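Suppose a colleague, Dr. K., hands you the sequence of a protein chain of 180 amino acids and asks what its three-dimensional shape might be. Before reaching for any lab equipment, you can write down a predicted structure in token form. Begin with the sequence itself:
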Amino acid sequence: MAIRSTNTASLLRWSAITVPLVLLLGFASGMSAPAGRDNAWYMALSRPAQTPPDWAFPVAWTTIYVLLGLAIAIVLAARPAPGRGLATILFMAGFALSLAWMPVFFGMHLVSAAVWLIAAMLVVGIATTFAFARVRRVAAWLMVPYLVWIIFAGILTWSIDRMNPDAETLVPPPATSQMS
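The predicted structure, expressed as tokens, is then:
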């Protein structure tokens, strides 16, 4: 009984750190460049019919970030588990890739690079899921919504890339002041 309560306390402590941290970093990435209707470049792009409404993205990402924070907390709380270090490193690498997507796509307008970035996110996400499964299966299951969303986002990004071969130059940079 004492071991179970120690594990629960450890999980709660890790969750109190990882969930807010993942949310904070995710939201910071989201704020790094205007998105959706706030981005004139994005609004000028041709987008596939299955593009969700703007409100769906923050709802989906908030849910995913909470699940990711819980998943890594479960792995970190599994102190004696073999493979915990590798699973943690894979998670951090995949999360760093995820954080880079917003600035690459919305900030730099590099749609093709964003497609490759999502492909890398998916590969690392799958590897992380398998590594998590070796530590704690529930942590791996918490990764599934992220993987599904990444596949969907990859399809959308690839479609936007195909529909907008001139996306990088679609909207000129803001005009400079004419005052001398």
